[in-house]
Amino acid sequence: MLSPSTLPYELPPFAEIRDVHYLPAFERAIAEHLAEVEAIATDPEPATFDNTLVALERSGDLLGRVRAVFDNQASSHVTPALREIEPRVRALLAAHSDAVHLNAGLFARISGLHAARHTLGLDPESLRLLERYHTAYRRAGAELSAEGQRRLRELNAEIAAASTAFGQHLLAANAADALVLDDPAQLAGLSPDAVAAAAANGRELGHEGRWVISLKNFSNQFELAALDDREVRRRLLDASLNRAQDTNGPLAATIATLRAERAALLGYSSHAAYTVADRTAGSTEAVTDLLARLVPPAVANAEREAEELAELAGGPVEAWDWAYWSDRLRKRRYDVDEARLRAYFALDTVLRDGVFHAAHELYGITVTERPDLPGYHPDVRVYEVFDADGTGLGLFLCDFFARESKRGGAWMNSLVEQSTLLGRRPVVVNNHNIPKPAPGAPALLTFSQVDTLFHEFGHALHGLFSAVRYPYFAGTRVPSDFVEYPSQVNEMWALWPEILDRYAVHHETGAPMPADTAARVREAALFGQGFATVEYLAATLLDWAWHTLPAGADPGDAITFEAKALHDAGLALPAIPPRYRTSYFTHIFANQYSAGYYSYIWSEVLDADTVDWFTANGGLSRASGDTFRRELLSRGGSIDPLQAFATVRGRPARMQPLLARRGLAG
């Protein structure tokens, strides 16, 4: 890792990297970067844009390479050795970030340039870089007193340690609390391939002759919609809802308290106020207003759905029953059987003839598998992406299957970030948690998993299409309440008729999904929006409650705090648990979404409006795709995100398309 990779696009040489390499590589990289930063800060020449900002953008090259590989592996294939060193690595990185951002000489140079920014003759991207650096250093505490900076360093170290522990505890709890079943009759309702996958999972996890359902990151496990045995459903949901409570509940309270103290030190009323000030929302009031508008109609929708389910079930529906009876109501109303539909959603076909084909039609790109290039795990597949004129854009890696060493959920990472300054093209990876099929069997997807494939590839396209000069702005380096927007837009093509018709073919017969079935799938896509919106809003407002705490407030016991937060928000519905409870809410306690889970619905306002724009402009057309790519996807963070949206849409966003999509317009 000490030298740039010689593989195409500087793909990391995974086959040569060992766990023992990481710690010495980090130590060497941090030392090199600190030396580079100190040389910039103490340069005897007067500060210029080139000898300060451009020099900073060129610095830290080794650290960037090492961290990109480590961060991805720590999420997707963590080993016992990595789990052991991760706390030390996170502590080193937190201390290093403080050392860079609290360098007084460096901040003085940046501040001087910022004060004279309108006289420097900078192009728009360079001017924005200077403004963003100045803001970032101020928000990192560069203007604090020496005592304030000392306490800030302590807080950052404590938060980093607690967040790392939170993620590690959850990974262990997900494995320990997996549902182990002794009798295949207990899996009645699951498809044969899902039963086979549970058996294979049991063998892999050391439960030979038993069936294991591993826990996904969210509350309502996919299997709840199919399992006929009500007691098994109850046990599965119970395991999901109560994992890591003893370890991560107290940690969550600690992290929230430390973040509140840090926000106050930096001059903000809460961590949410600190976070949102640098996002497109701009203020806590804007977020609170959006959420307050959505809760009452969403709850009303969910209550109507509960009445319908109770009528079908012949009695009240508990939380572990909801998905089961909802699936049956969907079948009755739309004649859509999720289990039978999976036969039409074979992973390779969906990827090739759905996800990749839609991108080809929109943007002209082609995607070619490169089995000669190494991934970081045998399950990883590597693809080369070519532009419409045949030039190479970058590499796309996809890691499809769940395993004990991978955290839950689905996400995108950058392994190499695009930059014309550094002459680099992007390498991005999508991670999924699709249950691995039995050997020789195809991976058959639920439509939700199909939707996730399109979503995550939307993130990948955001990285692959990046065409910026400075790495600071590359790809998805945009405000976190904007980053989900392009990926949510890409979901629209999953149901677009000419795309669905290509990839929805029976994996055994090759027969296309019948036209009337495809039509019902589209109709059923909006089914259950009351539940989906309440489940999401409950998690969002739980995040908001934790992170609007003022400094000095004692949240007390996490379970009690959570119950009160949901009650106060009007979302204490026993039959609809939050999509994430506190103890496994990694988005906000172990990743970068603290006070930011609202971003999905905030981005969906832009997404729904953009879907209307695509639809009105010919749908799957190169003209629209090229506009969206040129004006928004390729710009990364180099321009104001809402300005990019307005350039595409011709006006600021409107909320009505979102309300109509989620059945809340009334």
Protein described:
Helix 1 (19-41) runs antiparallel to helix 2 (49-58), helix 1 crosses helix 5 (104-115) and helix 12 (284-313) runs antiparallel to helix 20 (529-547). This protein is of the alpha+beta class and 666 residues long. It contains 26 helices and 7 strands. Helix content is 55%, strand content 6%. 47% of the residues are buried. The chain has a 5-stranded mixed β-sheet, sandwiched between helices. The chain folds into 4 domains: 8-143, Up-down Bundle (Glutathione S-transferase Yfyf (Class Pi), Chain A, domain 2), CATH 1.20.1050.40; 177-243, no CATH class; 246-334 and 527-661, Neurolysin, domain 3 (Orthogonal Bundle); 342-524, Neurolysin, domain 3 (Orthogonal Bundle).
By CATH reckoning, the class of the largest domain would read Mainly Alpha
Integer count of domains: 4
**DSSP E strands, number:** 7
Q: Walk across the major sheet and give the strand order.
A: 3-4-5-7-6
Helix count, DSSP H or I runs of 4 or more residues: 26
Estimated radius of gyration? 25 Å
The CATH topology of the largest domain:
Neurolysin, domain 3
Tell me the CATH superfamily of the largest domain: Neurolysin, domain 3
Beta-strand percent range: 5-15%
The secondary structure category is: alpha+beta
* Shape annotation: globular
What percent of the residues sit in helical stretches (DSSP H or I)? 55-70%
CATH architecture of the largest domain: Orthogonal Bundle
Termini gap: 57 Å
**Mean of pLDDT:** 95
pLDDT under 50 segments (min length 5)? Answer: none
* Main sheet: strands, sense, barrel: 5 strands, mixed
